[in-house]
Amino acid sequence: MTTLKQLAKLLNVSVSTVSKALSDADDIGEETKKRVKELAETLNYKPNKLALGLKSNVTNTLGVVIPDILNPFFAEVLYGIQKQANAKGYDTLVCISNETTQTEINAIQLLKQGRIDGFIISPASQTIQTNNFTHLEAAKNERIKFVMFDRVDNNIQTDKVSIDDQKAVFSATEWLIKKGKSKIVYLSNIENLNISSDRKKGFHEALHKHNIQIQPEFELNLTNIETAHKTIEKFIKSNHFDAAIAVDNNSAIMFQSLLKSFKPELVNQITCIGFANSKTSKLAYPPLSYINQNATKIGEQAVDLIIERIKDKSDNPTYKEIKVATDVVEV
Amino acid sequence: MTTLKQLAKLLNVSVSTVSKALSDADDIGEETKKRVKELAETLNYKPNKLALGLKSNVTNTLGVVIPDILNPFFAEVLYGIQKQANAKGYDTLVCISNETTQTEINAIQLLKQGRIDGFIISPASQTIQTNNFTHLEAAKNERIKFVMFDRVDNNIQTDKVSIDDQKAVFSATEWLIKKGKSKIVYLSNIENLNISSDRKKGFHEALHKHNIQIQPEFELNLTNIETAHKTIEKFIKSNHFDAAIAVDNNSAIMFQSLLKSFKPELVNQITCIGFANSKTSKLAYPPLSYINQNATKIGEQAVDLIIERIKDKSDNPTYKEIKVATDVVEV
DNA sequence: TTGAAAGCGCTAACAA
DNA sequence: TTGTTAGCGCTTTCAA
């Protein structure tokens, strides 16, 4: 790595002259600037970011804590985060908590060691289930700035980005009802999170509004991937239904596939919808209509929020809670 | 952030005493050590990693450049990288190249600014298609250590981790043939990469070995997601076939779904196999047998290699090229 | 057993 | 217009 010192030596000037020349300070002669810049170019000089960070307490780096990168939703959020962070001149230090609180604590420790300006987190399911947010509280006390996304918690005061889960599922359910559907099976592989209960509320709300009876046996729990196929098969074989709504990224694809195997004659009459994006919707045929969660947008918004917060030096900030719009994409 | 200086002041000792006490140096009195450690604990002192990095030229951070995080394969590799890096005490600075060379160049620039000890990269498809590896050559000249994975290039001398693409597809094809299949359709959505041609070679090799004629119209190009369904539909409707092999992560799921729609009577007679993992294989019903690419393992191996290389101070290293074993998982 | 000083690469206030 | 100096947080050598 080329350093200022080396440039200075080669050019027979002082380190500070080189530093100033490179930043186009107006107290350096044009001639000198030119010489300095040329040599810097030739030697492919890049300022050492560690030194800059140490000096200025600004790292231009964002921490990102993601529960599960194998979940396409989080992968897409990460994509949005990266894209936006890059556009704004930030790098990302990424940690995957693997849904456990301990890994999350470690991650935040790492992120606290002066290496980031702030972080973006969606808490692990374990954290949410045990309601153990002490590490985030601690971060807050140490004035470390962070933004929560997707799995947001009401007890933590900070900036948040999510979708309106209840509304998203309400709209999708209503979309089905308006197509004349009334015997709708509800699929979820999401563990016991706020998101999950909000989504179910949206489902119930829509049924209620349209005077449709809630039937507990029409709500399938597919958390366990090993038994999911069996659960769906059993349901398909022994119930009358005319639509399916999945509140995660996978279950609708699965359901449709089983439907085609066990009741092929019904495929055209039964409408399936799930959370997805334009690409994953096409894994199924016919392609599934889907609830577009705008995961990329969530990531972008999270980045905007954290950068805004980083730049905001006020002591008593008013936190923002952004709801990214979702929409039903009919294919 | 608590610093050594602050601790020193509070304890009325010097900075160097604190530093040594915390690292258990044997020239510091037990009593002092105890006092220092207690206060450090209370104030939740964490050494500033930037300062450590600046001082020691060791960052314990790995750069990771990934072409496409929405591809489940790369997501899983990233998972493996994170897991292993963490286990070995490294953090990861992740960049997504989005399949373009320019982003990749930027990423490597970022990674070069003294922030990482080495990086792990799978080149963008653009980089490979234009055969433009100057940025990697440059990195090599600057003695920056890196490991290539998956999309490895013969012209770059460095450590590499990949699967034996030809062999993997050969084995899977042969697995189909041994089940009595001979009219096998070949599906690929992979752009023109080495991987792609190696996989096709494996396919041809197996056909050849078992005296099966190669039929170009049995090799479907599904690169364009918009036309993929149509292409498959047309094929299914107008050809006799008894098996399908997909050399990517999505096409087999898609193919099976279209098959069930257009030739449901054949589903039980036609065997589909694709690259997948235990989870994605279950998106289809019946679950697909799959070629297990061991993406997690690839990530882990890449981390092991880069760490080994970082620790190796020799001038003329012998580079390793690891082939991770694949296997056909019959469901 | 403890502390002072130098230095990693950089910036910025101040001096020349 | 250029250079000197101090300091960001840390480790380490050497001196006390």
From TrEMBL, chains A, B:
Q: Name one Pfam family in it.
A: Peripla_BP_1
Query: Which organism is this protein's natural source?
Result: Psychroflexus salis
Query: Carries keyword Iron-sulfur?
Result: no
Name recorded for this polypeptide = LacI family transcriptional regulator
- The superkingdom of the source organism is Bacteria
Q: Which residues form the HTH lacI-type domain?
A: 2-56
State the PANTHER family in the record.
Answer: HTH-TYPE TRANSCRIPTIONAL REGULATOR GALS (PTHR30146:SF109), LACI-RELATED TRANSCRIPTIONAL REPRESSOR (PTHR30146)
GO terms of molecular function: DNA-binding transcription factor activity; transcription cis-regulatory region binding
Q: Which UniProt keywords apply?
A: DNA-binding, Transcription, Transcription regulation
